[in-house]
Amino acid sequence: MANLEAKIFVAGHRGMVGSAIVRRLKSLGYSNIVTRTRSELELLNQKAVQDFFQSKKFDEVYLAAAKVGGIHANNTYPAEFIYENMMIEANIIHAAHQNEVQKLLFLGSSCIYPKFAPQPMNENALLTGQLEATNEPYAIAKIAGIKLCESYNRQYDRDYRSVMPTNLYGPGDNFHPENSHVIPALLRRFHEAVNSRVKEVVIWGSGKPMREFLHVDDMAAASVHVMNLDKSIYDTHTEPMLSHINVGTGVDCTIRELAETVAKVTGFQGELKFDASKPDGTPRKLLDVSRLASLGWNASISLEEGLAQTYRWFLEHQEIFRK
């Protein structure tokens, strides 16, 4: 049973995932949620994090804080991506342990799996092959977070769990023209095309690669669900030294289908042109979510519904993306 009085720290509450987790917790009636901005608590500062945990005595921690970005950002800032993510994870997980926090949920990424892992990707695929080169530093940092959780569980009998989401989107996403992921990038591009009355939108690649997308509110719901699973039930569904669980829809679509849906949502009626001279990336990237389904959770927000909601959010907040 969930303890609605539990003192919970949500690290990264201003990010897309962290803010969704806070919304989810509040909607369920949790009344003791603690958050801190970066100016209030620098998560890269080990002493600051230790002092914070020592003074607050948390019951649960959601570790959603991370440095994230698309291919361009990962290629441009690999040092920052591996350093900042590893430091945040190490500081928070270790501080949680030292201050007797028994329950923690670490949010990772599906990029932890090998580039050519069998599809759909099962949790057992971890560390069975070479990673995608463009985001290898980020992936290694996330793998380190999983192994930190597993190690504290193994040595100290902690209850630190990890969830690996597929490609996320939704309110609070990054719509930067260069550093954003595919959905916010397409939503912005089609929006600008409609406003400029452009008759054609060019999309990189052939449009044939397949991707899976999960609305961030579904991700938040899954995170709280996994955190609240009874430890005995969780353990029976988790193999030794395998503490992570995939979170996704179990359904993918081609980039062409995604673009066509974005065009519909934004009202773009022009032509879609795919530039096959540009790289496609991995042909397919789909998670096997059968483990999570066996634990009682499935996604509920369809792609078109989620895209429409995200586009409405963008329209309401577009002033902050015009810089």
TrEMBL record:
The enzyme's E.C. designation: 1.1.1.271
Secreted in keyword set: no
Binding-site positions, NADP(+): 12-18, 107-110, 142, 165-168, 181
Residues annotated for substrate binding in this entry: 189, 204, 211, 280
KW Zinc (keyword) present: no
Residues at the active site: 138 (proton donor/acceptor)
Limits of the NAD-dependent epimerase/dehydratase domain: 8-231
Alphabetized CDD domains for the sequence: GDP_FS_SDR_e (cd05239)
Pathway: Nucleotide-sugar biosynthesis; GDP-L-fucose biosynthesis via de novo pathway; GDP-L-fucose from GDP-alpha-D-mannose: step 2/2
Catalysed reaction, written as an equation: GDP-beta-L-fucose + NADP(+) = GDP-4-dehydro-alpha-D-rhamnose + NADPH + H(+)
Enzyme class: oxidoreductase
A GO biological process held by the record: 'de novo' GDP-L-fucose biosynthetic process
Entry keywords, A to Z: Isomerase, Multifunctional enzyme, NADP, Oxidoreductase
InterPro entries: Epimerase_deHydtase, GDP_fucose/colitose_synth, NAD(P)-bd_dom_sf
GO MF term set: GDP-L-fucose synthase activity; isomerase activity; NADP+ binding
Highest taxon listed in the record's lineage: Bacteria
Family: Belongs to the NAD(P)-dependent epimerase/dehydratase family. Fucose synthase subfamily.
Function, in words: Catalyzes the two-step NADP-dependent conversion of GDP-4-dehydro-6-deoxy-D-mannose to GDP-fucose, involving an epimerase and a reductase reaction.
PANTHER family reported for this sequence: GDP-L-FUCOSE SYNTHASE
Protein name stated in the entry: GDP-L-fucose synthase
